[in-house]
Amino acid sequence: MKKYIFIIVIFLSGTFCWAQYWTGDGGRGIRVTVSEITGRGLSIQEEHILHFTQSTIIGVFNNFSAMTVFDRQNLESILREQRMSLAGNFSDTDLIRIGQLTNARLIVFGSITKSGNNYTLEFAVTDVETGNRRASYLPRQVSLLALENHSAIKEAAADLLRQLGVTLTSNALQELGKAEDTARIQYENVMARGIAATRQGTTVEALTYFFEAAAFNPSMMSEAMNRISTTSATIAGGNLGHAARSRQQEHDEWRTIVNAARTFYTNHLPYEFVYNAVNIRQVAGSHDFTKRTANYSIDISLIPKPDAWRTINDLRQGLANARRNDNWNFSLNQIGPSEIIIILDLFNENNVFLAATSTRFVTTFNSYQQTPGKMDRSFSFFDVNIDNITDQLNVHVRSVNEVPAQRAGETGFIQISTLQDYDRRMAPIWAREDAEEVKRKQEAEEAARIAAREEAKNRKYGFLIGYNYSTSNFHGVTCGYSGIYVSMVKHLDDFNFDIIIGYAFNLIGNRLRLPAGIGINIHEYEIQERGRISWETDINICLEARLQFIMMDYIYLQSTIRLIDFSRVAFTFGVGFVFKPGDIEIGGMKL
After folding, report:
1. How many Å from the N-terminal Cα to the C-terminal Cα in the chain?
2. Residue 84 has what DSSP assignment?
3. Distance in angstroms (rounded) separating the CA atoms of residues 510 and 482
């Protein structure tokens, strides 16, 4: 009975968590895309307002309804792929097309118009399937402050939700009426400035803003880090996006990027500290029966974050390409502190402190191409009192470089995880990577099979049979393909023939080839001496070079120059027949 009551309580509490901001279904099952906002009369310095307006609308729809809202970065990616404007100047047809591309039922679009010192806010929602207008927020004059603190935007978003049938609760209205958290406003505004700078092509300004945004709050840094990664990848070649600039200006802009990156990664270490909280074991042979102490150890790791180091190495590569041979007195060789010192505490199950110890990871790297490897080690607590040992032992991280562990996690200074949590979080990623690796191998194997089949199809087997014009009247046969070939040639004078093995090089596809080979010339001839007839045999080295021209799929012309015993030269010209696998069929079987 208690079990069922517990389940009901959990269910009701979960339902209350969903329903505290709306009643009814909250628009569940409806997919929404929030389009880029159109700006009219805004200066370049004010274009960031459009981006935090879009972000705020997305946030309200996400948090105060059950609708599924399409991600802003994915929307930008789709617009780029479709070569559509990112400025938000869309026709009704464009908006419906965007909704279809994002598989959305509703699309939200709007505009901010500036006239003098006044701003006018306007929104509308269109049904992609029918083209009908579902909601409208009529033009309303708002202050710049109401835009920057997001209050005017949240009011408009709440009105749109109401028109779409989402009934907001008093809790929701109270929450929407609250002043926005300062850190979130700063994050959204700085992110918006970075997006605007990206659109304007000012890469340095954009990267600086994204690094600044990522530093506000670790819980909100995901989009900023994604944009840092994308932007840094575009400048790995050293080009900051301007058509022309002086070397001094280029130097100064790269210094700005480097300083922003170093500051960020000094305060947000590109590592994750992982410790095994379960396997706390006594070190073999450490039990001191006189002192009643023993040593205990756990496994710990310092793991580089792949995305962070990919960004760092892109910036390093870009800096190296931009610097060329000039002596710029700044670099990204050292990222963050040169060492990371971690202090851990050991407790028993009664929360009695048993021991503390520290470990030091050296993190100095001097090559822009180098990404540090995972650092594993065993971490020991010394002289632990045996009398205080319980069945369950617990390890707590006290500090990282003198920053308390809780604060380090909250500020994003370093990510701290137990091995168990790390494995659970990484399991789907590893499974996906394993599946991708298997897929890559299968694709490579299939590509190799296809290439082999194509090579077999294009392989030209050639036979040259019959008469070849020459001063010594050669005739013979050649078989082979666009690779190794074998040739046997009979001279009409005496018993004289050549056996050649060579390789045919393709000059132009399978139309013009250059075979070249080496072999032997066997010449057996008759000698009459004192009325008696005898036979002598000479064996000489034979070199040849040919030129073959395949006139059609089945006919080729060939000229040959052959050097016998480095003293005799013969030239032949002939016509041959070419076939490839599948051209000839005998008894229903293709050769």
Report:
1. 79
2. -
3. 7
Token readout for 38 is 């159109």
User: What residue type is 69 in one-letter code?
Assistant: V
Residue 137 in tokens: 């927020």
User: Maximum Cα–Cα distance for the chain, whole Å?
Assistant: 132
Euclidean distance between CA atoms 446 and 432, whole angstroms: 21
**504 residue type, one letter:** A
Stretch among 91-100, 385-394, 430-439 having the lowest mean pLDDT: 91-100
Spatial distance between the Cα atoms of 573 and 208, rounded to a whole number of angstroms: 73
Q: How far is CA 33 from CA 127, 164, 526, in A?
A: 11, 14, 97
Which of 180, 196, 226 corresponds to the end of one domain? Answer: 180
Q: Which domain holds residue 46?
A: 21-180
How many of the other CB atoms lie within 10 Å of CB of 187? Answer: 24
Residue 208 lies in a domain: no
How would you classify the pairing of strands 118-127 and 532-550? Answer: unpaired
Residues 79 and 109 in one domain: yes
Residue 149: in which H helix or E strand, if any? none
In a domain, 420, yes or no: yes
In a domain? residue 349: yes
- Determine if the pTM surpasses 0.70: no
What sign results for the dihedral spanned by CA atoms 166, 170, 171, 174? positive
Sign of the alpha-carbon torsion through 385, 387, 391, 395: negative
Q: For residue 54, what are the contacts with CB-CB under 8 A and spacing of at least 6? A: 34, 35, 36, 37, 72
Provide, rounded to the nearest whole percent, the portion of the chain with pLDDT above 90. Answer: 22
Q: What is the pLDDT of residues 359-399, one digit of tens each?
A: 998 876 544 446 778 899 888 999 999 999 999 999 999 99
- The CA distance from 109 to 127, in Å, is 12
